[in-house]
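Notebook, p. 212. Picked up where the previous page left off. The plan for this session was modest: take the two constructs that came back from the sequencing core last week, fold each one, and keep the raw output in the notebook itself so nobody has to go hunting through shared drives later. Recording the first one now, exactly as returned: residue sequence, then the C-alpha cell string.
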Amino acid sequence: ENLRPGDLYVVLNIAGHKNFTKRGNDLLTNLDIDVFDALLGAKIEVKHFDNTLTVTIPALTQPDDVVRIKGKGMVSNAGVHGDLFIKLNYKMPKELTHKQRELIQQIKESA
C-alpha cells in the first residue's frame, strides 16, 4: 500500500560438499585405491553428483598422483566447464594370504 520502491539484496551462502572442494570452476576430490590397482592400473567407478564416472587409473600410479577429467567440474555463468581433479591415495590391504605373501616376496626379490 504505502511501500516505497527500492532494491532487494539477497545474500547466498553456498554450503560445501562432503566429497568435492571447489577451486574456481574446477572440482577437487580424493579417491582411495588399493595398491594392486595402483601397480597394475584399473578402471574404477567414481560417484559424481547424480551420475557415475569411469576413471582410468594408469599402471604404476604413485601416491598422491592426480587424475584430471576435463569438463567434469562446475559450469560458469559464461558456460565454461571446469575440470575434475582426483587425488589418488593408496589403501593398503589389512591382511595377506600366505600365497599373496609369497608372490609379493618373489616380486620384491626380482626387482
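Okay, moving on. Second construct, recorded in the same format:
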Amino acid sequence: LDYNKVQLDGSTKEILDIDPVPDKWRSFGWNAIEIDGHNFSEIENAFNEAESYTGGPTIIIAHTVKGKGVSFMENNDIQESAKVLSLAMLNNPLHLAVFQGNGENERLEI
C-alpha cells in the first residue's frame, strides 16, 4: 500500500481521515509491515518477511512522500504540480520535459 497521506485535493487527514491504517489491517487478521517506501533495503526486507510469514495474509504499508525527489512536486498537491509543468510546457511547446533527480540534484530539462 503506497501510503503518502495525500488525496487529489488535500491531505487524507483533512479530507477523510483513514488513520490508523496499520491497526485497521491488523484488526482483520492481516500481518501489517510498515516501511519507508523510498528505502530499497526496507522494501526488500519487507518482501522477505512477508514471504516467510505463515500466520495469514500480509500487507506492506509503504510510507512515501508524494513527488519525492522533484523539488516542485514533493509534498505539493497534484493540481499545483500539474500547473507548474503545464506552464513550462506552454512556454516551450516543441520540447519534451524530462525529470531527472536523485533527491539532491533534481532538475527539469525543457
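Notes on construct two before I forget. The chain is about 35% helix and 20% strand.
Flagging for discussion at group meeting.
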